[in-house]
Fold each of these.
Amino acid sequence: LAPHPGVPAARSTSHWSPWSEPVNLGPVVNSSATDINASLSPDGLSLYFVSTRLGGLGSNDIWVSRRASQDAAWGAPVHLGPPINSAFDDGGPSLSDDGLMLFFTSSRPGGFGQADIYVSRRTDVNDDLSWGAPVNLGPIVNTAAGERAPEYVAGKGKHGNATLYFNRGALGGQPADVYAAPITRDGEPLGPGEIVADVNAPAANDAGQSVSANGKEIFFWSNRAGGLGDADIWSSTHQSVERPWSTPVNLGAPVN
């Protein structure tokens, strides 16, 4: 990468190759509405994302597009419908490594704060419309603030448990920060979320995190100083869950 002046290179090219130019998925997936928070299924054949397009139940709804193979074109997006979507904001979809759990955020009634994290389960990984009734993760994880953008990482936490990464912040108030909570392989919280201090910046919004399958690299957006625009994508790495995360680096151009 050739970083923007004042922005460090994202990583040593002796370890990672440069990022390619971003490619727009085109008008089948994208629309004239807002289309964000894309998340791939483990087999790479289903793309879950949030959209404000017509045909939803609320202002933000979760949709899915499917393709026959990783070389095939994406099909027309399908609304997940109830019980996943509601008349309220529903977003931040993320699947477990086995494709049987869908974690997402919702502001529907019955939660503990501005937005809560829910989990829904299914038995058929090939049926994107067979999700069961969502279950609120409860007050161990959810608070009066907003918990958003859940990201499940299997078997990489302390004592071999899975880890649920998410961001917490209050709309119009407290800046968002990245948190992590221990969770069972079945999606049951084992303890409260703890702030991931190494990747957060004081007084900045740090959110939208996505963690690599091996749990050693995290990507997130931040509006901290040193970026190219209002909010940029940054990354950090660590060798194991016992080691601290490295100082986050800006991915630079052409990603940002």
Note: The first strand starts at residue 35 and ends at 40.
Amino acid sequence: MPSDVTIVIASRDRRDRLLASLPYHHALPERPEVILVDDASSDGSADAVEAAFPEVRVIRRRTSGGGAARNDGIAAATTPYVALADDDSWYAPGALAHAATLLDADARLGLINAHVVVGRGERDDPTCVEMAQSPLPAAPGQPGHPLLSFIACGAIVRRSAVLEAGGFDARLGIGGEEELLAWDMAARGWLLSYVPEVIAHHHPPPNDGRPERRERGIRNTLWTTWLRRPVAAAARRTALQLVRLPPDRHTARALVSAVAGVPWLRRERRVLPAEVELRVRMLEDAQLRRRKYA
């Protein structure tokens, strides 16, 4: 029986990791189709995958789209659900079937974030630990813990919900790009849940904390904030972020990059519905309390 879930992997210039992770997808009992979006790689990734795994559908991008490269794979999928993966992540056997069952059962559910375990030691991803403490009220019958963001390498999405929300924004690249899409999905009434029983594995390289990734993360948080939050709330979140950031050259570069985006932020600013903004503020206040008592 064909799977209701397609796996979409976006990858750029990490051929060896990609080739090492693909067997895990093909070993799944759900037998999902796998789509690779090669994000303008220069290391022969696409050719290597086509030679070693001819059953993988490869989409070759001529220019890099960063996180938005995933949009190509989501649009190309023919199943109602898409499991997003990086070239160093994969899902546990049965995870996709469980997620599909939950999505089938609730037409309001737009995204399930898996419990991501990291490395050979299968450590809990710290973001998942935080998700499990979500203060957001669940909608009647909503599974798991309500969310307003997600981890892209461990998310199973309803394809129509992501397309309706416009997908990942190409300007954000990689680094905190998930939050804007999550808010836009919530603004359209979609539910997002962290479901610990759905398991994903992530084996990032040791140098995954690259300074440029941190710079983009800072910039993207600021951009997302000013694209969607009311002015007073955006100013508050910006001030809180600036207080926590280390005063180094990477922070300075991130702030310069963020300011450079002001013209398009003004053009495309669209404030969240009041009920979604209220939930964003609840999460923000809960995070502040945790930091205060940590």
Note: The first helix runs from residue 15 to 26.
Amino acid sequence: YVQLNPEMRLDLEFGVSVRGVNDTRVGLADIGFLTRELHPDETGLTSTPLGRDAMAFILHKDNPVSALTENQIVGLFARSYASWGELGGSERSVFIVGLSEGRAGREICLEYLGLKTAVTRHDLSLSTSEQVVQAVATRPGAIGYISLASARELLPHPGIKILPLAGLMPLPENVQTAKYPFVRPAVW
């Protein structure tokens, strides 16, 4: 873009979506990129959809569980299950890895699961999907959620496996046709 438009300056900074909103609102940026829709209180701005980013639940590669229902995943994150044995796995304790408060991915995950922040408690909260992949890969009882776009350079990863949702894997054709249910918008 810059080569075709040398009079333009393009600086990209990655951070949390709220920063994109705030920087655009106060004039520090002309365009902000978000991985969620605008909130109702984020007035005075408009958004344009750019695409969809698949989110996925991941398990440690040695976990014998190969699929979970949406209700089981909700139960895991609501702390209804203490052991993978309750879900057909080993008696290993469940260890929940997720994104930190304020991260759009966490917000999207809890919204997808229909859970409130007050009901959930992660054993380990991290800043990036890459960190979640690494943490799940080193903890045999772990479950986590990631943005596939954010973690794409680590995938496939030998230490994790991705769970199907509604019988579907988060493949590009399933995301593009809106068959895969766990996605977040990319807007500007």
Note: Residues 16 and 48 are 18 Å apart (CA to CA).
